[in-house]
Design a protein that fits this description.
mainly beta, 7-stranded mixed β-sheet, 4-stranded antiparallel β-sheet, 50% strand
Length: 113
């Protein structure tokens, strides 16, 4: 079973940038959709971005134009580049493989105003 480990979270000021990484223990080149989710304090977990094996992407409306999801199948890694961060982006960010219902442990992103 593929295991996922996120990294790259931290504290950043509003307007700043962070790059999250999700390293998979197994090969991901055969996996179609990979996704990033987030869960803010007191709120439900929500889908942020998805990417297909072919590189097609989709984003939550509130992050369009600011976040970019990408994948490097050779490194078994999925990334989330987050620019122009806002305080409302504060959350624990999770990587997921929907087909396997596999989740990482999450990485905390805190955006200060």
């Amino acid at each position: 079973q593929v295991q996922l480990v996120e990294s790259g979270g931290g504290l950043v000021q509003a307007g700043g940038s962070l790059r999250l990484s999700c390293a998979a223990s197994g090969r991901i080149n055969s996996i179609n959709i990979m996704a990033w989710y987030r869960q803010a304090p007191g709120k439900q977990r929500e889908l942020v971005a998805t990417i297909t094996r072919g590189g097609s992407t989709d984003y939550k409306d509130s992050v369009k134009g600011r976040f970019t999801i990408s994948r490097d199948n050779a490194k078994n890694t999925v990334y989330l580049q987050m620019n122009s961060l806002k305080p409302e982006d504060t959350a624990v960010y999770y990587c997921r493989i929907p087909f396997l219902n596999a989740w990482g442990q999450g990485t905390l992103v805190t955006v200060s105003s």
